[in-house]
Specification:
alpha/beta; 6 helices; 3-stranded parallel beta sheet
């Protein structure tokens, strides 16, 4: 093959050295281009003209190679992030990207996921005690049916994240905006929430006994059938928040009377709903 053509291909493929699918593409392309170059020479074309016409015949090869490389690397990542049923206690996953990763039924106690992008990943039925998710992206993640005792979620990204049916004793959420997060049927009585915003969060049927939500913001949140005994919303902001208990049990309504709303600010509908179930709203501001 024309040396200039060989050098051109080597330059195009150099950034992707070691990517198997790209190497295979290069080998196939070398054979095809060699044949095309020879055909053009046989037609009487000089080397320069034959080179230019050969290159033109393959179109935007750099874009094609980039797409092949990206696809190959994406597939390789998918294989590497299937870590289900593995013993990975105290592993270092800080800063990794693992979209739709599979960590189900694994031992992940004490592992570090700080600043990791775990979008769409599943940790269902794993032991994640003492794990650190500080700054991590947990959008669309499944963290249900887990032991998350003492886990840390400082400034994590929580969007459509599911923690349902999990154990979160000692877990700490600091500086987090929880958006459309599911925390249903979950043990939260010893969980810590500090400086958080709850937008569309569902706490239905969870145990929140004794939790302090002082000064935090709740928008479109559900506390239906939740254990609310001695929960504190001092200075909190509540908008379009739902408090509904079971018509067959008076336990929920007795607990509502122990909830502290002193200094809280709420919209008229939330106020009316709470007033209707005899919550103490004597120090509430209605907006």
């Amino acid at each position: 093959m024309n040396e200039k053509l060989t050098n051109y291909l080597n330059g195009v493929f150099a950034p992707y050295d070691g990517v198997k699918s790209v190497s295979e593409l290069k080998a196939d392309l070398q054979s095809d281009l060699q044949e095309r170059f020879r055909e053009l020479k046989a037609e009487g074309k000089d080397d320069e003209t034959a080179f230019e016409m050969t290159i033109d015949s393959i179109g935007d090869i750099e874009q094609t190679v980039l797409e092949v490389a990206n696809l190959s690397r994406s597939l390789e990542r998918q294989v590497l992030t299937n870590l289900s049923a593995s013993n990975l206690a105290e592993s270092d996953f800080a800063g990794v990207t693992a979209h739709k990763g599979k960590f189900t039924s694994s031992m992940l106690r004490g592992s570090d996921f700080t600043n990791a992008d775990l979008t769409g990943s599943s940790f269902k039925s794993s032991d994640v005690k003492d794990a650190r998710f500080d700054g991590s992206n947990l959008t669309d993640c499944n963290l249900s049916t887990l032991d998350l005792a003492n886990a840390s979620f400082n400034k994590s990204i929580l969007v459509r994240t599911s923690f349902s049916k999990s154990w979160l004793a000692g877990a700490k959420f600091t500086g987090v905006k929880l958006t459309d997060v599911s925390l249903t049927m979950t043990a939260l009585s010893k969980t810590v929430f500090e400086n958080c915003v709850f937008d569309g969060v569902d706490f239905t049927s969870s145990d929140l006994t004794g939790l302090r939500f002082d000064g935090q913001t709740f928008i479109g949140v559900k506390f239906d059938k939740a254990g609310l005994k001695e929960v504190s919303f001092k200075g909190a902001t509540l908008k379009n928040v739902s408090f509904q208990g079971s018509v067959l049990s008076k336990k929920y309504y007795r607990a509502i009377k122990t909830v502290c709303f002193d200094g809280a600010t709420m919209d008229k509908l939330t106020y009316a709903a709470l007033k209707g179930i005899e919550a103490n709203l004597s120090k509430v501001t209605v907006i």
